[in-house]
Amino acid sequence: MLVWKKALRFAGRYLLLLILYSFLSANLHLPYSELLAATLTVAVASRFVKFSVKGVFFAFVCFNFIPPLSAYLWNFVKEVITSDFKAHQWPHFGLVLIQSFLAAITLSAFSYIEHWLTGRKNNTTTTSSNLSYALVFITISLAPLHSQTANSPQILSPFTESIPGSAIKFEMIPLSAGTISINKTAVAIKPAWIGKTEVTWDEYDVYMLKLDANDNPKLGELDAIARPTKPYGAPDRGFGHKGYPALSMTFHAAQEYCRWLSAKTGKKYRLPTEAEWEYACRAGSAEKMAAEILDKHAWFWDNAEDKTHPVATKQPNQWGMHDMLGNAVEWVVGNDGNPIVAGGSFKSKAEQLHCGTRAMQVPFWNRTDPQMPKSKWWLSDATFVGFRIVCEP
Known about the structure:
This protein is of the alpha+beta class. It is built from ten helices and eleven strands.
């Protein structure tokens, strides 16, 4: 019975702490005031706080290791439970449980070490002191985490997408949250996935040639998504097909492909924004590649022999993306909302090939197209234009 009373007393104090802490954090905006008030609340609820060397070490561990480890474990648990788990459905509840559990384990380890070093056995005073440590330092460790959780970058993992109704697969790489400066303006980047390579003919053929037509007799949203018209001549221009980047599609065609892929997979695929694309291209570095380094990462004027090459045959950048520079220039949504291409192509000279390379469509790109108006699906003379996709969490 005594154990149950102690357990209920502990639960009551902890519940009181959580309620008061939630109230304080919702009404106070100064981190130090929030921390001080929460700590004072715990000290009153626990009746006393006994500081010692053990307490100092415990505080250090709580501050530096438990919050990030808890956040990582919680995101892992969310992915295991369900793929469409939404963070707002269980706000911080699982995170608090994991954090408390880790803090309790850490505290117990410190207690055992202390008892082993001093030769003392556990007693009521030590248990009461441990309770104070737990309540105070769990709260302290929660303080920085609480203010960061809502805005902290979501932890994403690489995945391989299979296009339903086909045997085609492609890889997506996580793009972590961050900021990038473009034209002296800081642009925030949200977590997302970006294609490991440019979209290949293997992938685009499923859409263009309706190779998925027998996948589902009730296509639903797919019925409203148009497919490209038949191009004039070989769409790959004789460069190569299997494993090569898809070429010569208009911005509209690339967007429609993303709509189709989204409907097929149930995920949200789209073209990258200009800021997202450059952020991925830089991969944490703002320096332009030297010519000898560029040769290892890109197909361009000096080494491409005036044609595209199979994707991922050059080294990836620091974040694992291939062909961000060279091979095929890539459609992106410009900062002003208009379509532009980025990254340069196999036709670009070395000095023109960097993450800031941009171009807009010009009449030359579909000069030999006999249609009037010109095709909204194909660029008859832009044998160097392709695209890469982004998937939102």
